[in-house]
Design goal:
seven-stranded mixed β-sheet, five-stranded mixed β-sheet, globular, single chain, Rossmann fold, alpha/beta, about 15% strand, binds NADPH dihydro-nicotinamide-adenine-dinucleotide phosphate
């Protein structure tokens, strides 16, 4: 039955491989739920949940510093609002297309449900590439993007945030234009600056949460981060704060990367090295290979397009923390990780492991925390930012961090309990998909056919 429903989804959008990959994984986990609770089939919940409530596509014209005009494409996918206003990041990257954003929006629905906060799922972005653009060019692009998006978002309708290529700088420009057009100062975006409605710990939240989630998984085996060697990918927002938390918990991070290559630092990163990376990536907007100029004992390996695996995942380690992008760990990488002794994986990126890689992790019986659970700390703290905006209050750093930590513990518990309840103990993929699904599905039934 589920197979038939999936086939229909696949026939409708055959050219959206990432979206279909995400749907397939969730549907597979839900087979056992449908057997026990056929009411979801009767109400056509799967057919409805895989179809966005609304998709907005628009032109984004902007002018570069030389006076030349460019045209990009903007998107917002309003996937599901059964349990709250649409919520999910904006991604600016040349690879952005409808299928990628639909996969991210679909994942977001279950992730947001897992947080226990009242947030529906959405995602958006553009094929604009911020790399190599001046601040003024990025500002003009963001302003142009918002001159259309502002019609479709609002604090009770849809609340976007950051993602790849969208950090504090971009959120600032987007917020500025929204405020001008609507003539109101309101919590329409999260990830705002701390002086103008942002929340403490929002920049840190995804990476910190990912490590909190991993720590909970380790705890089930009486273990901790202390003394563990960790492979981290990416060097952006999630990667930086994941690395920071691992260091704080006594672990050793030996790799970080960007889209051109990765560095391997056998001695491990410390607070000074991480500060160098933050400055390199967030202020100077440079490339990770510059790390070896400052720390010559580290080795830089450029991406080799002829390889069918990523050598970053082929080092001796205990824990892997992917923080770059989707499908960055394929079957071969997954096997390398297992062969190298990795026994715990917590995903900061969204869907960083291909389906054959996931199968290898599950078969190996290692601790494997999928992105929709492990990286939910970012959107959870966005939810906390929305609450603070509504209350017109600012909680302290300690208070937000403590709430984040509690939420991550609860997400871990929900995954464990849902997997056990449906006979798949220890399977965090099934646990996350099932726990996330049930709340949304029940809300959809309560609200009728809308
Ligand atoms: P950033 O833009 O801050 O950093 C992304 C990092 O990944 C950069 O180092 C980038 O390298 C690298 N990267 C991006 N695309 C590719 C690619 N195709 N191949 C190799 N490397 C790549 O983004 P974030 O840190 O915010 O996001 C990273 C991941 O975490 C994404 O999957 C995102 O969806 C997910 N995520 C983010 C959340 C957040 O709060 N920001 C919340 C939950 C999930 P380069 O500098 O060369 O582009």
């Amino acid at each position: 039955m589920i197979d038939k429903i999936y086939q229909k989804v696949a026939e409708r959008d055959p050219n959206q491989p990432e979206f279909l990959q995400a749907v397939r994984e969730v549907f597979d986990s839900l087979e056992v739920v449908m057997e026990k609770r056929p009411i979801y089939l009767k109400h056509k919940i799967l057919e409805r949940i895989a179809e966005p409530e609304r998709v907005i596509i628009f032109r984004v014209p902007w002018m570069d510093d030389n006076g030349e005009i460019h045209v990009n494409r903007g998107f917002r996918i309003q996937m599901n609002s059964a349990i709250g206003p649409y919520k999910g990041g904006l991604r600016f990257h040349p690879s952005v297309n409808l299928g990628i954003l639909k996969f991210l929006a679909f994942e977001q629905v279950f992730k947001n449900s897992l947080t226990t906060l009242p947030m529906g799922g959405g995602k958006g972005g553009s094929d604009f590439d911020p790399k190599g653009k001046s601040d003024n060019e990025v500002m003009r692009f963001c302003h142009s993007f918002m001159t259309e998006l502002f019609r479709h978002v609002g604090p009770n309708t849809d609340v976007p945030a950051g993602d790849i290529g969208v950090g504090g700088r971009e959120i600032g420009y987007l917020f500025g234009m929204y405020k001008k057009l609507r003539m109101e100062f309101t919590g329409v975006l999260t990830g705002k600056g701390i002086n103008w409605g942002g929340s403490y710990v929002r920049p840190e939240a995804t990476g910190y949460g990912q490590v909190y989630f991993a720590a909970e998984m380790l705890k089930t085996r009486g273990d901790t981060f202390e003394g563990k060697t960790c492979l981290v990918s990416g060097s952006g927002n999630v990667s930086q704060y994941c690395t920071e938390k691992v260091i704080q918990l006594g672990g050793k991070v030996v790799t970080v990367s960007d889209s051109n290559g990765y560095i391997y630092d056998e001695e491990g990163l410390d607070a000074d090295k991480l500060k160098f990376i933050k400055d390199l990536k967030n202020v100077r907007r440079g490339r990770i290979k510059e790390y070896t100029g400052k720390y010559p004992n580290a080795v830089y390996t450029p991406v080799d397009p002829n390889l069918d695996y990523n050598p970053l995942w082929n080092h001796k380690a205990d824990i892997a923390l992917p923080c770059a992008t989707q499908n960055e760990i394929n079957g071969k990488d997954a096997q390398h990780l297992i062969n190298n002794g990795v026994f715990c994986i917590s995903e900061g990126a969204n869907m960083p492991t291909t389906p054959d890689g996931v199968e290898i992790f599950l078969d190996a019986g290692i601790l494997y925390g999928p992105g929709k659970a492990a990286n939910a700390g970012g959107v959870s703290t966005s939810g906390l930012e929305m609450s603070q905006n509504s209350l017109r209050l600012n909680w302290s750093r300690e208070e937000v961090d403590q709430r984040l930590h509690t939420i991550m513990k609860n997400i871990h518990k929900s995954c464990v309990q849902a997997a056990e309840a449906f006979g798949m103990a220890g399977n965090y993929v099934a646990g996350a998909n099932i726990a996330g699904f049930l709340k949304v599905a029940d809300a959809m039934i309560d609200q009728g056919v809308v």
